[in-house]
Specification:
Elements (H helix, E strand, L loop, with lengths): L1 E5 L3 H13 L3 E5 L2 H10 L4 E4 L8 H10 L6 E5 L4 H9 L4 E4 L4 H14 L2 H4 L2 E4 L2 E4 L4 E4 L2 E2 L4 H12 L5 E2 H9 L7 H15 L6 E4 L3 E4 L5
Parallel strand pairs: 1-2, 1-3, 3-4, 4-5
Antiparallel strand pairs: 6-7, 7-8, 8-9, 10-12, 11-12
Helix pairs in contact: 7-9, 8-9
Calcium ion binds next to loops.
Length: 224
């Protein structure tokens, strides 16, 4: 396990560095994103904690470069900026999660675990299961406690996306683009309608799909 921290605020950087070392987690802590570009090549991290306001290359510019190069390493933004537009923008540009400062180390650790867990076996396996809900991509079927769910094509795709990226918040725009493609005739209400229908069909497990106020939706995994 190797964590890359990109944070120019010395006190926070050193605190995080200390905490990860205490947990015997490999960590490289840098104060700028320019050096980080080299670091991700030389020693690919399993997860990156990325500040936004940095000297030189900014956090989002670094993220853009990473994703443009096809690097899908999990990235959690750590930032004092807490406006919803900042959060939405970061998520749409490929961040996996966003933690606003100040935060406790326990909270950050929980976010990291969630991000890493979803990056594990679920990512590549054609069959996966969370909290009694399972998806079989080859059979193109979903089940709740072993009972087949009568999902439409779009509902199936939504469920698959949510579960594969459990714990990640999706904006309505991201869901529109991922599931429906770039169709200008569709509005974000389309997403709400399909999510509501999917929730209903999931019954009591519909609670796993949580509404993130002003952002969108995520598949909650903290209670599993
Ligand atoms: Ca900063």
């Amino acid at each position: 396990m190797q964590i890359l921290i990109i944070e120019d605020e010395e006190a926070l950087r050193e605190l995080l560095d200390y905490e990860f070392r205490r947990l015997e987690i490999g960590v490289l802590a840098l104060d700028n994103a320019n050096d980080a570009l080299m670091a991700v090549e030389d020693c690919p991290p399993d997860l990156i904690l990325l500040d936004l306001m940095l000297p030189g290359l900014k956090g989002l510019q670094f993220l853009d470069i990473l994703r443009r190069e096809g690097n899908d390493v999990p990235v959690i933004i750590i930032s004092a900026r807490n406006a919803e537009t900042d959060i939405i923008n970061a998520l749409e540009r490929g961040a996996d999660d966003y933690v606003t400062k100040p935060f406790s180390f326990n909270f950050l650790e929980a976010k990291m675990k969630a991000v890493l867990r979803r990056g594990g076996e679920i990512k590549s396996s054609p069959k996966f299961s969370l909290g009694g809900v399972s998806v079989d991509l080859e059979a193109h079927k979903a089940f709740s406690d072993g009972q087949a769910l009568p999902l439409t094509q779009k509902e199936f795709e939504l469920l698959t996306l949510f579960m594969r990226k459990a714990g990640r918040a999706f904006t309505r725009n991201q869901l529109l683009n991922s599931i429906w493609g770039y169709d200008s005739s569709l509005v974000s209400r389309t997403v709400d309608v399909h999510v509501a229908s999917l929730r209903k069909k999931l019954g009591d497990k519909g609670r796993y799909i949580q509404t993130v106020p002003k952002i969108g939706y995520l598949w909650e995994i903290s209670n599993f």
